[in-house]
Design brief:
single chain; Growth Hormone, Chain: A; 435 residues
Length: 435
């Protein structure tokens, strides 16, 4: 990888490259304006994941839908997001990161508006699928763009990205609850408006790549999953995300019988959850990975998440207990999201955009299964059973990581230095589409 590529990337993202000594250490908050524009749009995009959480009971009531039908708002969104993730690196390598980001944002705006104007739950399910397509185009490209443009190297960029994820997930339920207290349509209109602001910010602040990106084969993400390290992490993330989305998508229905069914109340509960996630992703995860290998962090924190889900099952009749499990779950999920992402980005010598597309596609498909499966399980077995099933799924993720640990040496930083590209230069080049 040449320094010219890194310099070209710096020009594309509005940063400057130093041809001499390495830059001195900077605060994670000291970033180019292009990074903040993409990070702001990331916050809004991730709001879409938890936006509907507080209004699920209201949608079910006002549109005469069953809990399983309303949970399909998550599933249609996540299925299309997961499938589309496999093709985002192929598309962005041909039209460039900026165009891909803007197409994704435009789709989110259009389908969020359409969902807010819908008259039945089936239409909302369909429009959420379109929203998921836009989300996939944006999320996958945004991560590579932030890694390429951020100051402070790959780890700082990933922390910034995960902070945006956490804030988006936190703010999404809060805005969903506040606007949902007026009408279940409000959160959809609010999200479209904020995303339009993000669209304008990226148009103005993120410069286009000066050179045409080298094309990535459409089969690249599928071939990437054949790499043992990435395959192990993707399989573990599939089962981990089942636990993630049971806690996120099923818990509102578990709280309704306990007197916590209003949109504002649910919004505040999941605001606490998302805020906890953001705090641990930014501060606790780096602290842990500085003291022990990344895989060891996963081996410790994943079982704690399983215990938290079991505690939620035991607390199914207690509003205080269930809310506490939700907040504790957020603390654990923040660590896991950051550490898993860092593992994926370092586990192979593949372009990071390809690794991200492959991993994210599998991960979101796992999340898509959880919401309707949880409500069906609750109806047939009992209200606590989804949390038990989610705990079992998280333990499967632990078993996969333990069984495949011999393939994860690179994820922990143990690599053969011969022929390896400097991580910052590689990240910069990939950010410009030069893989």
């Amino acid at each position: 990888m040449s320094r010219a590529n890194a310099d070209a990337t710096a020009q594309a993202t509005g940063t400057t490259a130093n041809a001499g000594a390495p830059e001195p250490a900077r605060s994670i908050l000291h970033q180019p304006t292009a990074v903040w524009a993409v990070a702001f749009a990331c916050v809004i995009a991730f709001m879409g994941i938890g936006l509907v959480d507080p209004i699920l009971p209201a949608i079910a009531r006002d549109l005469a839908a069953t809990p399983t039908e309303t949970e399909m708002l998550f599933t249609s969104y996540l299925v299309i997001t997961g499938i589309a993730m496999f093709f985002t690196s192929w598309l962005s390598s041909r039209i460039g990161a900026k165009r891909t980001l803007l197409i994704g944002l435009a789709l989110i705006i259009a389908f969020a508006l359409a969902a807010g104007l819908s008259q039945n739950v089936e239409s909302i399910i369909g429009f959420r699928a379109g929203w998921g397509l836009g989300n996939a185009l944006f999320i996958s490209t945004a991560l590579a763009t932030i890694v390429g443009a951020a100051s402070g190297g790959t780890s700082s960029a990933i922390i910034l990205y995960e902070a945006a994820l956490g804030l988006g997930i936190a703010i999404g339920p809060l805005i969903g609850g506040l606007l949902g207290s007026l009408s279940w349509r409000g959160p959809f209109f609010g999200s479209a408006t904020l995303m339009a602001v993000g669209f304008i910010a990226i148009v103005v602040m993120l410069k286009s790549e000066p050179t045409r990106p080298a094309p990535i084969r459409v089969s690249a993400p599928f071939r990437a999953l054949a790499r043992p390290g990435l395959g192990v992490l993707a399989a573990a993330a599939f089962f981990y995300n089942i636990g993630f989305f049971v806690l996120l998508a099923y818990t509102p229905f578990a709280l309704v019988p306990l007197g916590l069914g209003s949109a504002v109340t649910l919004g505040l509960v999941f605001f606490g959850w998302g805020l906890s996630l953001a705090v641990t992703s930014v501060w606790v995860a780096p602290l842990l990975t500085r003291r022990m290998p990344r895989t060891q962090v996963l081996w410790i924190v994943l079982p704690l998440l399983a215990l938290d889900l079991l505690a939620a099952a035991v607390s199914i009749g207690s509003a205080v207990g269930l809310v506490a499990c939700v907040v504790v779950g957020g603390l654990l999920l923040g660590v896991l999201n950051t550490v898993l992402t860092e593992c994926v980005m370092e586990a192979t010598d593949l372009p990071r955009s390809v690794a991200s597309s492959a991993y994210s596609g599998v991960r979101f498909l796992g999340g898509a299964i959880a919401p309707p499966a949880a409500t069906l399980l609750a109806a047939s077995v009992g209200p606590a059973s989804p949390f038990v099933g989610a705990a079992a799924s998280v333990l499967v993720a632990v078993a996969i990581l333990v069984a495949g640990h011999r393939h994860l040496g690179r994820a922990n930083g143990r690599v053969d230095p011969l022929g390896q590209v400097d991580p910052l230069e590689e990240a910069e080049a990939i950010g410009a589409g030069d893989s």
